[in-house]
Each structure stands twice: as structure tokens, then as C-alpha cells.
């Protein structure tokens, strides 16, 4: 993502439907457990996670999520999501994060169990 400003939608604007992840175990995470950044002009349709476990490295170092030009460095962020219509987290465990577990901006619907 090059800018956080909404741009005109045209035939070159990418579309992301629903991203589904299940039965994942991730250890020694550094920057963020999950990072979802849709476009302001064309948000990600949905994110569904089922049976996911994420833990952070004890001595994680700050850095930037891939493909996030101009983003601030982050370290041990639980879930960062911006410009997403709907997020569903089912049996998702994130351990070792710092600060707020969820950083949600311009998310229309959030569901967790």
C-alpha cells in the first residue's frame, strides 16, 4: 500500500475477497501476529481465521510488515487490521503480544468466539 488516502477506483484497482486461514500454528513472531491492510477505496471483503495459535519471540525486534511502504515499525502487535469489511476469529489464541491485542481501523464488522 502506497498511501492511506483513498484513490479513484479503476480497472487497475486490486480486489481482495475473503481470506481464510485455518489450523495454523506460528511461533517466534516478530512484528505482528496478523497484519491486514485493505485499500481505503476498496477494502478487503473479509478475514476468517479458525484454530490459529500465534506466539511471539521473547526478544522480538521491531520492523515493518512486508509491502507496507511508509508504515511505522512495529513489534509484537497482536492483530492489525485496516480497511476490512468483516473479520471473524474462531478459536484464535495470540500470546506474548504487547499493548492492545486488536488494532482495528475502518473495520465494519468484528466477531470472535
Give your account of this protein's structure.
The chain is an all-beta fold and 113 residues long. It has strands at residues 18-29, 32-37, 44-56, 77-95, 102-112. Strands 1, 2, 3, 4 and 5 form a 5-stranded parallel sheet that branches. The mean pLDDT is 90.
Q: Kindly name the structural category.
A: mainly beta
| Coarse morphology | globular
Q: Kindly report the average pLDDT value.
A: 90
The main sheet comes to:
5 strands, parallel
Order of helices and strands: EEEEE
Figure out the total of helices. 0
Number-wise, the strands total 5
N/C terminus separation? 30 Å
Radius of gyration of CA atoms, rounded to a whole number: 14 Å
Return residue spans where pLDDT drops below 50 for at least 5 consecutive residues.
none
Beta content comes to: over 45%
Provide the helix percentage.
under 10%
Can you tag this structure with a few keywords?
mainly beta, five-stranded parallel sheet
SSE diagram, text form:
Layout: E1 18-29, E2 32-37, E3 44-56, E4 77-95, E5 102-112
Parallel strand pairs: 1-3, 2-4, 3-4, 4-5
Question: Outline of this structure?
Answer:
The protein is built from no helices and 5 strands.
